[in-house]
Specification:
423 residues, alpha/beta, Aspartate Aminotransferase, domain 1, Aspartate Aminotransferase, domain 2, 2 domains, 7-stranded mixed beta sheet, 14 helices, 16 strands
Length: 423
Amino acid sequence: MTLQEKDSQYLWHPYTQHKTAALPIAIKRGEGALLWDENNKEYIDAIASWWVNPYGHSNKFIADAIYKQLTTLEHVLFGGFTHEPAIILAEKLIEILPNNQQKLFFSDNGSTAVEVAIKVALQYFFNKGEKKTTIIAFDNAFHGDTFAAMAASGISFFTEAFQGMLIDIVRIPVPIKGREQDSFDALAKAIKNHNCAGFIFEPLVQGASGMVMYEPETLNKLIRICKENNVLTIADEVMTGFGKTGKTFACDYLTEQPDMMCLSKALTGGTIPMAITTFTKDIFDAFYDEDINKALFHGHTFTANPTGCAAALASLSLLQTQEMQDNIARVNKRHLEFQKHIESHPKVTTTRVLGVIFALEIQTETAASYYGSLRNKLYDFFIENGVVLRPVGNIVYILPPYVITDEQLQKVYQVVEKALEIV
């Protein structure tokens, strides 16, 4: 029995309708930007396995750090205890985060990082004796699959089964070029008409909606509007963090800074699940009280797992090397060259690039659904040609490991261009 056949007997996969989906590909090995399946077919991982693996598969530097930590302390509860890896990681992150971020709370993944932030925003005002129960979010946002994170997400089929059970969310349009004022006006209206505790956003790039991009200046203004109206701001950097946009954090492009930031995915280099939500001291101080009921009663069994902290420290070390920064610049340069080459293609309507992120939109007569026939046709074509890409409707994006070679990137571009012939 093959791994695929055993998988179908036991396992339930994410975002999958198992009655109609093909069997998942069984991967046996990875190295750098490459993966090999059980039949030894080679694939280029052009999306860094859902954006988590910027330094390449089976990275020996991170693996050695994990091994060393496992032989010292694999885990200890974080309730009433602490340990050196968490403290050192906090110190390293505080050095590179926006300077208003002073406190870190550990959790397990991007969704839980967002869950913590939303709970903190709501309880912040509760602790101060104010009733603010609404969160503002962008149209077509995606912040995760736990309940508060799901509520803040705007992709309907992710949430339609749970309508009427979710926290109060008011949505505003994304401030894409030419629509900035619509977003400013909608934010002001939302704050005026609702008791808004916080505004959550994916800074500069909306990932799951198809790498929709907008400018730092517009986000600066949205944050200022919130600050002027005592609404907390939450930057969901789960996707954009740790170099994806060309800077360490997308918020590094801003002059205004959020009150909270959510980190995960590339935090540990794609090795161990871990997330961190960061806060200003003012937010922490709203929970710092002799009244036990004002504490943040939230936690996870593997909070601040020492092994995960060791992986994160190794990942940060790699990110900060000149070699990795040069890789990020190199991938960005190649993306810009491919953009110039492909943007005039008759089947391409728009292209966009930021850091190591490239996206193009394919011209269609009707709106392409998220998991519709066009998306599935493209996905199958890419897999057949040995490239892992997951289109979003009619949008094809590339977000590769920073260590991908120029030759591997060129193959990805060629396969994407060839795919335009089949649509």
